[in-house]
Amino acid sequence: MERARQMLQHHFGYENFRQGQAQIIKQTLRGQSSLCVMPTGGGKSICYQIPALMLEGLTIVISPLISLMQDQVEALRTANIPAAYINSTLTAQEVDETMQLASAGYLKLLYIAPERLDSTAFLQALSHVAVPLIAVDEAHCISQWGHDFRPSYRSIQKLVTLWPQKPTVLALTATATPTVCEDIRQLLEIDEQATVITGFARNNLALSVLIGENKERYIKNYLLKNSQEVGIIYAATRKAVDAIYDMLQRAGEAVAKYHAGLSEDLRMLEQERFLKDEARIMVATNAFGMGIDKSNVRFVLHYHMPRNMESYYQEAGRAGRDGLPSACILLYASGDVQTQRFLIEQAQDETRIPQELAKLQTMVDYCHTEGCLQNAILAYFGEVQEQPCGRCSNCNDGRAVTDVTEDAQKVLACVVRMGQKFGKTMVAQVLIGSKNQKITDFGFARLSTYGLLKGQYSLKDVSSFIEFLIAEGLLAVKHGTYPTIYVSAEGKEVLLGQQQVMRKEAVVVRQIATNDPLFEHLRVLRKQIADEERVPPFVVFSDKTLRELCDKKPSQL
Ligand code: ADP
Ligand code: MG
Fold first, then answer.
1. Among positive and negative, which fits the CA dihedral 409, 415, 420, 426?
2. I want to staple 206 with a disulfide (CB 3.0 to 4.6 A). Which of 115, 391, 457, 553 is the partner?
3. Is the pLDDT of residue 532 over 60?
């Protein structure tokens, strides 16, 4: 390991290994195949680059993105490390030349696109080269259960068994659920004990979910208030990317854009402008960002809710790679769910639709959860965190918690009495005592007369309460022609009175007249908040605070 540290200093200019790096390098050097799960920006590349320098022979790196390969190879050559890549941008002759260099032992690292492994001639040529290590970057692409399955990644199994003596395998990823980890280990024959997970928590990221904002206005204001900062705005569709880009350009912002509808050349150009800080804002679809190493991204704004947690955390995680405080803001609207549903159903592989819809639901739950957002993400990736993060919008909203067990029981009971085969709108309508034709047709007119939640709540309140119960796991969603809800095992415990349900007090939007004494107070407060450097995403006052405010003079605030 002493030599490994010298390599780190000599070639990369760093004094110490980061968390997990030394362990992975140690295992790899002793020939143990490993799985490395480390957050984006955690420093996965060095985990195979240093062993590659120290091991006899050629290390092969499988990497899904051409641009990524080129950047890495360039960076390695700058650090005096002989490296090359083989992908579709090379001519047949260039491929031959590269292979000759590899066979003659002139290369330490060779980056290969997975598609290349489908060529038997290529594998044949490779089998004559001594290969001690195969690094599989973005290893979640090999798993059907991952969010970004690439069939070509399956050919890696063939590669691994190409030589009489199996090379050491190092699989690396930033986003893998326990199921995906298990799948990767099985496919690449990695021992469970050889898994190194450094933890998903990113303690410099402040996560926010904002529901019901005017998105355009929010983005404009945010950029005005943070006018010096670099950031990425993600949207789900090319059309939305174009629209946001146009809006920001009209507002005089230095902005770049990136989506699959632009030519390869233009995409590269726009990416360069962003990487070189010529454009401070990148507006993009999820096509942008894999492997991008830009350290000073201070915010990642999501204009639409992404289709799953893996994508969200990977995209949001592009903020704050330098470890400085950064914001990840998700602007949620219920229409986002339809947008993503549509995109999922458009995808070619029909067999994957149910699984993708289930993942989408987890994302919707995340947007409606009232607990710590960081912990919700960690729980998704199978990590237990006791303490709330104290930075996210849920940790900082200052709302009191109340017991809503009784109301929850009313909703759950209603779902049961309706036979657990209807959508949430229908249930909500019955709960507020609505008597439309559909309710009568299905024979719920009588149930609806009880109007279990009638009077206290509007239809919208009840719908959002149902969303909350889904997010809490008390109700579950079944995806069919249209989504229906049913009571989960945990929900049954609530029905039986074995479990309490706590919810944060609702946010009430109250209009305040200009002659109300509160008006002046809030005006002063708002000014104070806006003067601060970092504007919190929103401010919520409890009734108690509002009453206390009334008792004070503006000068006392
Ligand atoms: P990942 O692939 O995990 O997203 P990278 O390998 O691209 O991350 O590394 C992210 C950044 O961290 C790079 O700029 C890299 O040079 C830097 N880095 C890696 N290891 C160390 C280290 N031990 N000390 C300081 N910086 C490091
Ligand atoms: Mg990487």
1. negative
2. 391
3. no
